[in-house]
Write a structure and sequence with these properties.
37% of the residues lie in helices and 20% in strands. It is an alpha+beta fold. It folds into 3 domains: 4-58 and 158-169, Ribosomal Protein S8, Chain: A, domain 1; 61-153, Arc Repressor Mutant, subunit A, CATH 1.10.10; 220-498, BirA Bifunctional Protein, domain 2.
Length: 499
């Protein structure tokens, strides 16, 4: 058992502890207990310690079993070789359990065993084998790198991280290991024993306390502020985005998206259980949207189906901030109906949206969307491409591609791609297009007004700017707080603003 006295005696004799892990192994001490003694001596000002981090590979518990009994494929072969007749798969499973499932395919690949196609009987295909895997496990870790890599692929070795300490005595080091008193008591004063006591020195260096580690901005917050500044400098105004829970009407129907569209099912959308139905939808506007869906108008044939108000009133977590744009355009249409004058507008929003998607390196179920639109007369696709190029240029992303696409509420439509240097591939940044008349005219906007719009991910440009390959390292519960603390502020340059 490691004791404070034994550790102090060793330091006094040897002059230092070169490696706490080696010392623990040499003396038969528990390393964790030894580190505890070292830390207590360090707290008393008697020693200083320096951590030494190590990484090493060791055999897993599964590998230890294979080391003793042979690899799974060898165990399957040995079982079949020991039998006088052929066997069924069920016989192997009963004899070897889980090992059979692992070893059967490898033994077949190595042509150690064979299966009769007619009877499905399994027999040994050779007289003897060489179990290279068991030999590697016995020789581990004295193996060539490629052999260790093979063991890694089979998950037979695991990475072990350890921390050892180099410990040196300070000027306050003493072989007197009596516990130092921290305060003079009334009893010490009355008995006069205080003079013989040893007191712990008062530390006045940290009287102000440890500085609070706070105020670090997440990379998404930095890029969000940058993009907001870019759009404001480009003359856009910000829209309110305080509706995370939205009705299917504003999220889908007002955008001329049919109710049978696959994006509206549970595989892509999160539906709200309570409240399950939205109430405050303007009746006259709802009827115009219904008419456009069922029969069309203004030159459109619509979708030619029976539109359901119940479906439109279902509440969801919004799948895009285009619902925000739809609400804002409806307000502009109401102003036009009151005044008879349409004023060109440029608006944007940046907020969270939700998709019931499969999670991978570039997709999350919860992410941020940058939405923008320009409403004016005489606009076309060339204007949209120009705005998008300028928008991304100010972010430092100049390698862009545009691909024709289909959206129910935009025509023509384009997907936006940016090149990701870390992934070495083109990554989809968002979608864009010209809002269809079937969406705008039921709102009450003038027929000669064009609205070009786009919606892009906030995470994708952030990943490109910060060189992050996996979106889960940027946003979500797996994100390392060190990423937030260490990443520099990412502001746009003054020269780019001026441009």
């Amino acid at each position: 058992m490691v004791t404070r006295e034994a550790v102090v005696a060793f330091i006094a004799e040897a002059g230092a502890i070169a490696d706490s892990e080696e010392l623990a192994a040499e003396r038969g001490w528990d390393h964790v207990a030894l580190v505890g003694v070292i830390k207590s001596l360090e707290a008393a000002g008697m020693v200083t310690s320096e951590p030494m981090k190590r990484e090493s590979w060791k055999l897993t518990e599964e590998a230890e079993g294979y080391r003793a009994n042979g690899s799974p494929e060898a165990q399957v072969f040995n079982f079949l070789s020991s039998r006088q007749s052929s066997s069924q798969n069920s016989d192997i499973d009963a004899a070897l359990g889980d090992v059979a499932k692992i070893g059967f395919s490898v033994a077949m690949k190595n042509k150690w065993i064979q299966v009769d196609k007619q009877s499905k009987q399994v027999t040994a295909a050779t007289q003897s084998i060489t179990d290279a895997t068991q030999a590697d496990l016995v020789a581990f870790p004295n193996l060539a790198k490629e052999r260790i890599d093979q063991l890694k692929k089979r998950k037979l070795v695991q990475l072990v991280k350890t921390t050892s300490f180099r410990t040196t005595p300070t000027e306050g080091f003493s072989t007197d290991v009596r516990k130092k008193e921290t305060a003079i008591t009334a009893e010490m004063c009355s008995k006069g024993t205080w003079a013989a006591e040893s007191f712990k020195a008062i530390n006045l260096t940290n009287v102000s306390g440890i500085p609070c580690q706070g105020g670090h901005l997440h990379p998404l917050m930095k890029v969000k502020q940058e993009i907001r500044q870019i759009l404001l400098l480009m003359g856009f105004e910000e829209m309110p985005t305080n509706r995370w829970v939205e009705s299917s009407f504003w999220n889908f129907d007002s955008l001329f998206q049919p109710q049978q569209h696959p994006a509206r099912d549970a595989h892509d959308t999160f539906f709200i259980q309570s409240p399950a139905r939205a109430q405050n939808i303007p009746r006259d506007y709802l009827e115009r949207v219904k008419e456009m869906h069922e029969h069309g108008g203004h030159g459109s044939t619509g979708w030619n189906y029976t539109w359901s108000e119940d479906e439109a009133r279902k509440t969801i977590l919004r799948t895009h901030t285009t619902a925000v744009s739809a609400r804002m355009l409806k307000l502009f249409a109401e102003d036009y109906e009151k005044t008879g004058v349409f004023m060109p507008r440029k608006c944007f929003s940046i907020d969270r949206v939700f998709r019931n998607e499969t999670l991978d390196a570039t997709h999350l179920a919860e992410f941020h969307q940058v939405e923008g639109f320009v409403a004016d007369r005489g606009l076309g696709l060339g204007h949209l491409i120009g705005v998008l190029k300028e928008f991304f240029r100010r972010q430092g992303i100049t390698n862009l591609r545009f691909k024709p696409a289909f959206n129910p509420y935009t025509e023509p439509s384009m997907e936006i791609f940016g090149f990701h240097p870390m992934l070495n591939k083109w990554v989809e940044l968002g979608n864009s297009g010209i809002f269809r008349p079937e969406m705008l005219l039921p709102m009450g906007l003038p027929e000669d007004v064009t609205v070009m719009a786009w919606g892009v991910s906030l995470e994708r440009p952030t990943m490109i700017n910060y060189g992050i390959a996996n979106i889960r390292d940027l946003f979500g519960f797996k994100q390392d707080i060190a990423v937030t603390k260490k990443n520099p502020v990412c502001w746009i340059k003054a020269t780019e603003v001026a441009a």
